[in-house]
Structures are given as C-alpha cells and as structure tokens.
Amino acid sequence: MVGFVTAISDGIQSAFIPMLEVLPEYKNEGIGTELMKRIPKSCEHTQAIDLMCDPELQSYYKRFDMIPSTGMIIRSYLK
Q1: Beta partners for 9?
Q2: Cα(68)–Cα(76) distance, integer angstroms
Q3: Residue 72 DSSP SS3
Q4: pLDDT at 37
Q5: CA–CA separation, 22 and 25 (whole Å)
Q6: How far apart, in whole angstroms, are the C-alpha atoms of residue 41 and residue 78?
Q7: 47-75 residue pLDDT tens
Q8: What is the bridge-based pairing of β-strands 48-50 and 14-22?
Q9: Which domains are present in the chain?
Q10: Over pLDDT 90: what percentage of the chain?
Q11: At CA 49, angle to CA 16 and CA 38, rounded to 5?
C-alpha cells in the first residue's frame, strides 16, 4: 500500500476526512488526487464532507471543490 484516505460518516448528514496519506516516495504521482476524487463518491449520501488542514494545504483541497473554513480542535499532545 502506498496511500490511503479515510472517512468517518454518520451515514446521513456529514462525513469527516481525518486522514489522507501517501508514502513520501510516491508523492506527486497523482495518488492523493485519485483518492480524493473517490471519497465524494463513497460519501454521496451525506450533505457535508469536512476535513481540517493547515493553511498551506488549502490550495490542494480547493481542487476538489472544497472551500476554506475555520474550526476548533483538541489535541492531547498539545497540552
């Protein structure tokens, strides 16, 4: 396996993409792009698909019709 994407959904209202990962030696080969193209199809029953990313990654996700948003997080390792 060289890459994967996961989505968590309630099956009705929303889905959340917590992780998109591609092994460093396989980046820039279109693997992440292909995975992101497939996720909306598997979550088409939901009204919203959300993910959190650093500002420098927003331009990447805009390619998939995602729009910037603000949010809040709790991370135990930041305490």
Answers
A1: 15
A2: 25
A3: coil
A4: 95
A5: 8
A6: 34
A7: 999 999 999 999 999 999 999 998 888 88
A8: parallel
A9: 3-78 (3.40.630.30)
A10: 78
A11: 95
